[in-house]
Every structure is written in structure tokens, then in C-alpha cells.
Amino acid sequence: MSELTRRTALAAAALAGGGVLLRGVRVAAQGQAEAAPGHSGQRTIAPDELPGLPPGAPGLDYTPVVVPDGRTLPWRLVGGVKVYHLVAEEVDHEFAPGLRAWCWGYNGVVHGPMIEAVEGDRVRIYVTNRLPAATTVHWHAAIVPSGMDGVGGISQRAIHPGETFKYEFTLRQHGTLMYHSHHDEMTQIGMGMTGLFVVHPRRPRERRPERDYALLLHEWHIPAGARRPNPNEMTDFNVLTINAKAFPATTPMVALRGERVRIRLGNLSPMDHHPMHLHGHAFFVTETDGGVIPAGARWPEATVLVPVGATRTIELVADNPGDWALHCHMTHHMMNQMGHEFPNMIGVDPAGLDERVRRLLPGYMTMGERGMAEADMSHMQVPANSIPMLGARGPKDRVTMGGMVTLLKVREALEPGQDPGWYADPPGTVAAPATAEDLARDGIEVTAPPPPTPPRPHDH
Ligand SMILES: [Cu+2]
Questions:
Q1: pTM, whole model, 2 decimals?
Q2: What residues flank ion ligand 1 with Cβ within 5 A?
Q3: Ranges of H-type helices in 35-171
Q4: Residue among 166, 73, 82 at smallest CA distance from 118
Q5: What pLDDT was estimated at residue 448?
Q6: Whole-angstrom Cα distance, residue 317 to residue 20?
Q7: Which of 22, 229, 298, 322 is 20 to 30 A from 437, alpha carbon to alpha carbon?
Q8: pLDDT, position 34
Q9: Where residue 157 sits, what CATH number does that domain have?
């Protein structure tokens, strides 16, 4: 059957591209072959091969994906079935040093651990509910039997506190999928009940990249001083995260110069799409949660919009050494908590108030009574359990970004498992003040800056 499949793909390649010389043409044709009518999800194996396939093995059938700041859900084999166990529970999660909140996640982490499997695997996923509320798990973009779809009330009855449910299905596709609660979605997704679900192709048709990363985007509303995200928020999200960490707490990705890098971006934020911009490189969007994009239909990008409830996988050649930001380009999404709506509590004595509010919101603490007058955030008096709006100490100056920001560090050499630190720029490659000689040589005339505009009367 595999021979037949390969021949079919080659025939399609010849039809589509008139030849198989160009890598792009070959892959484009394969996309067309996969998208044949009647097929649901993209596959590299024929449906009648499914029962005979051994469980996909890490290192052999796939190179495990790296989840910075996250982890992969372990599994064990029982009679040829991969068995997983998710435990929905409260998690005391640290978004960045100084900011913790009680979220809802799985297996002690927020977001839940990444599920990793191979096309054709039979998986059995137990879900234990240790939350105070009923829940379900939906396997986002996975092609499963209707009753395994995890939509509360439609596919199944909800999993009540204390119960353990069993989901079981065969993975008939490959791609970057996700999972999340599909019961009281606003509350449970807003509290963090989301995770990634990567299904590797059984027979990869493109070369495996040397680096394969997965990042899940999210946004939270955590009132300054509060110890719980507010899932009722509709617009004013003030903690923006990658794998549930806010910059500068995000762990950077690394690559050796010349390596091919895949970055899987998923977005289960409650309300916002995120235009993710990578510095220093161009990339191709190679797949969505619907499957592989035929190579002939890809175009180069430096920013990819990752909509709510979608994944976008990008691939690039890391050919430019340096420290390169990967961040959401919405300016309020590269800021932390303190930059947003903030009640003016200066001069207010919160004693007594906190006690009353804590009856409704455990852990609540009013903040801001000491003011925020100092412009230099690095010296700012930050109230308990909150993170400064902007910044970190960078190698050359203060970094004014926070939130949905991480780094791709491209190097000539790397120590396994170690952050290589900041990039050592070759001499003469760093922007610096222009000298008088520079200005004179290039005929640049610098006029004196205009005087500051006097304040208008109504400003006071
Ligand atoms: Cu954003």
C-alpha cells in the first residue's frame, strides 16, 4: 500500500508541477494528494494500514518536540495502546518571579503537559477531575469519533469532580493540535485549561528540522495584587504569556547557525489573535491545525497571525547569528501587568478594605498606595504579587518589553541544555552614537531639537 501511495503522490507531482526537480513542486503535489476529496485530516498512511502499525517510538519515528518552560505528558504502552493520564486540578502557577496565581491546569502545571504521539497510534487518555467544577477535554482539530470530541452536553456528559473518564481513539492524521476544556469554556479556558497535542507524521515527507519547538500563547486578567486570574474579563488582559510565562521569564529557544528550526505556535487565548513577529529571519508557515500547507502555496513571512483557537507552524533556517526576539506585535501584548488599568490608590489606607474583599476573593490585596512615581521601573516599588510593566536588564540597556515575548538565540556553538547567554556581537556591528567625523563625512546636519511644547492650561 505504501508503494501505491508513493506512486500516487509522484503521479500527482508530475501532474501538478510538470516535474519533480524542484523541492517545492514535489511537496506542493504531495499536499494535493493528501487533500483528496473524502479525506478528513492529513495523513501519510492509508486507512487500511492503521490496524497493523506499531506504536510510534521517540527517536525512531520522531524527534521529540521541545516545549520551553513546559513538559511532555508521559505515556505507557498497554497492549499496543499508548495510555496517558491527565489530572485537571488547581495549580499555584508562577508567571514570572514575583507573580503567582491559582490557575486551573493539568498534572500540576499550567498549561497542561504537551501530548505527543504519532499518526496511526491508538491512544487512551484518562481524565481525572480534581477541580471543584465539572469539566471535559476536547481534542482540538483532532479527527475523532463524535462521542470522543469532548464537548460538554453534546459529545458526552461532563466529568464531575472526583470522576475519571476515558477517551480512546486512533490518530488518523498528523499535525499540531491542541486540547482544552469544552465545558464552561469561558471560565476554564480563561483559568488556563489548555495544552498542546502534537501528532508526528508516520512517514514524514519533508526533512525533519534539527530544532522543533512548541509555544502556546495565552492571555490572562490578573488584577494587581490578586491571586487568581479573572476569567470573566472580555477585553482588558494584563498578563500575556508564552507557555504561561511572561517575559523576561520566558526560556529562550536556541539553534546552531544553519540549522532548520520549526516553531509550532498555538493560541488558546480567550479573546485575542496574536501577530507573532520573528526578528532577523524570514520563515514559511508550513502547517495549520488543519494540516500541512502545500509547499507551492506557502509564502515568506516575518510575522504570522495566530488566531484564537488555531495553530500556525513556522519553519526557517537559522542563518543569522544573534539574539532575536519572537513576540506579539500588539504593543499592549508586550507589556506586563502594571501598564494597564490601575486604580489610583495613592493616599488610601487599604487596612480593613482588604479583609472585606478577601471574603469574596481569597488572597486579594490592594496595591498602589505607595505610588508609582518613579519612572525607572527597575527601581520602582512593586506591590506584592505583581510584576513591573516593562522590562528586564538587558546586556546593553534596559529592555522595555514584557509579556508575550521570547528569544531565538542563534549561535556557532552551543552547550547542550544551557542558555548561551547574550550574543557577543562582532566588532563594528552594534548601533552606536554617531561621531562628529561620521556626520561631517556623510553630510548629516543635526539641528538643535525643538523647544518643549509649553503645557496647555487645561493640563493642570
Ligand atoms: Cu498579542
A1: 0.81
A2: 274, 328, 330, 333
A3: none
A4: 82
A5: 77
A6: 23
A7: 322
A8: 44
A9: 2.60.40.420
